[in-house]
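Hi C.,

You asked whether I'd gotten around to modeling the 593-residue construct. I have! Everything is below, sequence then structure, no commentary in between.
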Amino acid sequence: MDSSSQGEYTIASCANEIKLWHVPTSQEIKSFAPHKSGSTINCVRWNHNNQVLVSCADDGDVILSHQTGRCLGHLPTGTATSSLPPAVNTLAFSSGSRYLCSGGASEVVDVWDLKKKEKTRTFAGHNGSITALVFGKSDARVASASDSGSIIVHSVVTGTAVCNIGNQQGFAVRDVKYSPHRSALLASSGDDKCVSLWDTNTSTLIKDFPRVHHESVRKVGFSPVSNSLLASVSLDKRIVFYDLNHKRTVKQMLTDYSLTCFDFHSDGVTLAVGSDKGHILSYDLRKSDQPCSKLTNAHSSAVMCLHFMRPLSKGRRQSVDGAAAAPAPQASSSLFTPVKSASSSDPISSSSASSSSSAAAAAAAGFTPHASLPGSDLPLPPPVTGRESLPMSFSTPIPRRSSVGPDPASAGSTHTATLTPVTPAAGTPATAPYTAYTAEGQRATGGPHSSFASATPADPASSSANTPRSFTTPSTSTPGEAFNVRLATATMSAGGAARREGHRVHQEDGAAAAAVINISADMIRGVVRDEVGSVRAGFKEDINNLHLELIRQFHLQQLELRGMLESFSDKYEGLVDEVKTLRKEYEQLRHTY
């Protein structure tokens, strides 16, 4: 059988230790004892993604363990005034495993917010040890039962008791379950040997099933598939099934052991039951009444609780040992942080997860965030050398600059060039003037011993910036003068190309810095969007629960007002009849006297 099937049919059982079993093959997968030696573990529950098991025991501890058996932390259930914490008998997870309820000998129900790592509410009202807990279908209500016979339903939103029911004889209630198909339908069972159905909206008893069992009914549960099937197990060794539509029993199965607990698999046809001798039996309701597998002596004492792994989507299937399970979360010294699935809403580390995911996306796109100022460590492109950086064409046009002040494009540059006059060719008078160009591209005229002087262009209109020109020699120039002009032109072209290359590099640096800033802004926006979405979802859930509570209160007040009006109407009719009778007597007396 593949690992996904093994994960689907894994069940957790508890007595003095916790064991994980693969039901079809009766194979033990894992065994561990997170509580103190000798303590009886009363309840065990899987979280919503089957990664975490929470358990409670007579030692008063509520411990969260990974499916591999590793302890993740515990809840501080004790008080500062008590030396020993009271025993915890039962636990209940909300649908998303954010909230956890616990109850026991303290006679109160504690609601823990595992996301905030704190106790959010405490519900009182019972006069005995709490024996069972269950969340409602929408997680807005918590039903609790005690060994004094009371069943109280509290609103998680308002913190008040909205329903107080139970048996009047004071028999202990052993289990309560909400229907997964009808939000207000609650089933209970206990030492009165009855199974009862309640409407928690109106606090009324819908149906009692007396004399079905002959001993205490230990557990009751609804089918996860059929909205009309209910089952119960008892110490009288029987499993009884009920038809809720016709409100009658439909089947009974007799076993060889007194039964203490059971659980439906999510397929609706597989049922596992535990006995007081430590045996675990599994049944296929489509087949005969005989168990299809049997775990003999699974525990050395009575099996206190059974819980199948919860159903997961195909992409999120988990397994135990043999399959690729998610890594174990880190242990917590005080309170447990819920393990998050690929899709959950966990919530504690959403900011860091969003940041790392954004950083990973940036790295995948080829960006690397910088810790210093944007662009300070960005790698510069390698310098271009040779012919690519210095185009040596003598006819290359260069910008013509004004005769006053330096070139704006080369402001701050310290580059200068000096030209050495060339001796005129033979036959040229020594005193003949010659024409040369300075490093700035200005024309100078002088004798053989004169220095280069700045010359103002003859045409003022030609001094506009960025006007290309080519230098030509006058008709009277010598070959030495022509060579001097060409050399000056090449040197100035090289300087202009170098400046343009530097300007391009600075532009690329600015573009890269802007890209890094945009990536950082996207990351921050993603983190803020995730946080705002989480807060919005929480507000929406609270508002929906508040609306439901207001509607329920309005309905109750409407029923009370209707009853008062009916009573007043009856009294009014009685008064009218009495007035009529008195009027007749008055008329008779008047005629008589």
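If it helps when you're writing up: The CA atoms of residues 357 and 368 lie 14 Å apart.

Thanks,
B.
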